[in-house]
């Protein structure tokens, strides 16, 4: 929980996320997008990483995805980039691991999201 | 490792499903548990009030069984509407008064299919968010089980679904009969330990915290099951195991499960495994009930450990040899 004290309580996290939104409308096309958004906000809120750390991580992810798209790679949606960044910061902070993400995706890849034993 | 769940959620209320065929002694057992001084406050949900009442101040009759099909287009994903209603009601009570109860035991009727009861805890969001299914505990009557297993597919299903089997009335049968019955139960379900229970006397720990649905619990296979050559028996519900000392290919194994689940659906009752996937240094654990499946990373393989994958399948009329053949094709090349 490095740097958790930098986060001043009472600052609305959402407001800080806004400058990164490409077009100003935050809408969720799929339920998972809202979930991914909420998970990041909640984890930051709980002190697992600071908001500036998240912004930095997300910016890197956006830059990397943009670079890939620029050379004809598969474009990623805003929340696909958000999710990739969320996974990366959660691995960096030890909240999950690459192995756990791979392992959890195993069942998901078999059954689809509607059939996971929670 | 801190998981996302522990980082964000509060502990869930554990639930035990107590099943068993008519007259096996579920109610006697339940009464013993409730009278024991264990300090646990247990809410009991019963399907029907039998002749012998259950002695508890938080007991709820769920009324008639109500099987509800979910709207996700999956024929396997039935839940018990009666249970959803009661569990949600109990949740509200406990939210208002947290000391109301610590855990829940559901006693099903002798003829109940355990699958919709179990699935209720995974499919219904409002239930899944608050409760965690600990295990299915099946009481088997040593005296009457042989005939019941012959005559009623429900009796076999209750054994097949079990995380633990409690054998009652074993004093009423000969040692030989007991050996035969145990062998039969192990062939139906090699992963549920069998424990004797006399006149309902069993420590609470035999019934709770079994962790049958925990991915990190040990995959125990009854000794002797893997070595057994004789697979000539009549029960429709049977099990088989597959082991491999060579790592498996994740994509191939996923394709195997997709196909097996689609093909056998309700006939594939429970499956569990610890596998070594090529390219991953951690053990991967998984389990499933019909079409519902979960997987997670377990500890890393030790340096001196044989990376042996072990999978167990329990189901109805599954083509064992064909499925094992397909699994052999999942070995990473």
Structure description:
The complex is a heterodimer of chains A (118) and B (333). Chain A has helices at residues 13-17, 31-45, 51-70, 78-92, 98-111. Chain A has 118 residues and is mainly alpha-helical. Chain A has one domain. In chain A, helix 2 packs parallel to helix 4 (78-92). In chain A, 25% of the residues are buried. Chain B has 333 residues and is an alpha/beta fold. Chain B folds into 2 domains: 10-206, P-loop containing nucleotide triphosphate hydrolases (Rossmann fold); 237-328, Hypothetical Protein Yjia, Chain: A,domain 2. Chain B contains 10 helices and 14 strands. In chain B, the strands form 3 sheets. A 7-stranded parallel β-sheet of chain B has the order 3-2-6-1-7-8-9, with helices on both faces. A 5-stranded antiparallel β-sheet of chain B has the order 10-14-11-12-13. In chain B, strands 4-5 form a two-stranded antiparallel ribbon. The longest helix of chain B is centred in the N-terminal third of the chain and has 16 residues, at 81-96. The model of chain B is unreliable at 1-8 (pLDDT under 50). Classes of the chains: A mainly alpha (118), B alpha/beta (333). Chains A and B meet through helix 2 and helix 5 of A and helix 1, helix 9, strand 12 and strand 13 of B.
């Amino acid at each position: 929980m490095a740097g958790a004290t930098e986060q001043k309580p009472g600052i609305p996290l959402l407001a800080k996320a806004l400058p990164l939104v490409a077009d100003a409308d935050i809408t969720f096309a799929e339920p998972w997008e809202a979930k991914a958004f909420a998970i990041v906000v909640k984890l930051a809120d709980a002190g697992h990483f600071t908001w500036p750390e998240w912004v930095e991580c997300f910016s890197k992810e956006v830059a990397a995805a943009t670079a890939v798209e620029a050379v004809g790679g598969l474009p990623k949606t805003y929340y696909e980039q958000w999710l990739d960044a969320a996974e990366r910061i959660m691995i960096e902070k030890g909240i999950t691991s690459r192995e756990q993400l791979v392992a959890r995706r195993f069942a998901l890849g078999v059954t689809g999201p509607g059939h996971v034993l929670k | 490792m801190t998981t996302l769940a522990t980082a964000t959620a509060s502990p869930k209320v554990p639930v035990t499903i107590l099943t068993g065929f008519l007259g096996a002694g579920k109610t006697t057992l339940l009464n013993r548990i409730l009278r024991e001084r264990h300090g646990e406050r247990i809410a009991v949900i019963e399907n029907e009030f039998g002749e012998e009442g259950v002695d508890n101040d938080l007991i709820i009759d769920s009324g008639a069984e109500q099987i509800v099909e979910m709207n996700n287009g999956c024929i396997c994903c039935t839940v018990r509407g009666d249970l959803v209603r009661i569990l949600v009601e109990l949740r509200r009570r406990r939210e208002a008064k947290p000391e109301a109860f610590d855990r829940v035991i559901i006693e099903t009727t002798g003829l109940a299919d355990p699958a919709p009861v179990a699935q209720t805890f995974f499919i219904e969001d409002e239930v899944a968010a608050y409760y965690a299914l600990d295990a299915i505990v099946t009481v088997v009557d040593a005296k009457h089980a042989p005939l019941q297993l012959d005559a009623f597919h429900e009796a076999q299903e209750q054994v097949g679904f079990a995380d633990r089997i409690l054998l009652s009335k074993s004093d009423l049968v000969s040692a030989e009969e007991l050996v035969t019955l145990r062998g039969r139960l192990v062939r139906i379900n090699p992963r549920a330990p069998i424990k004797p229970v006399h006149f309902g006397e069993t420590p609470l720990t035999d019934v709770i915290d079994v962790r049958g649905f925990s991915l990190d619990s040990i995959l125990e296979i009854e000794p002797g099951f893997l070595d057994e050559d004789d697979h000539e028996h009549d029960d429709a519900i049977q099990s088989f195991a597959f082991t491999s000392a060579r790592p498996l290919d994740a994509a191939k194994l996923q394709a195997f499960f997709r196909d097996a689940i689609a093909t056998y659906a309700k006939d594939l009752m429970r499956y569990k495994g610890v596998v070594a996937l090529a390219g991953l240094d951690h053990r991967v654990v998984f389990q499933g009930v019909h079409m519902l499946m979960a997987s997670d990373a377990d500890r890393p393989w030790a340096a001196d450990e044989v990376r042996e994958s072990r999978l167990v399948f329990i189901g109805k009329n599954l083509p064992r040899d064909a499925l094992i053949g397909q699994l052999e094709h999942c070995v990473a090349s």
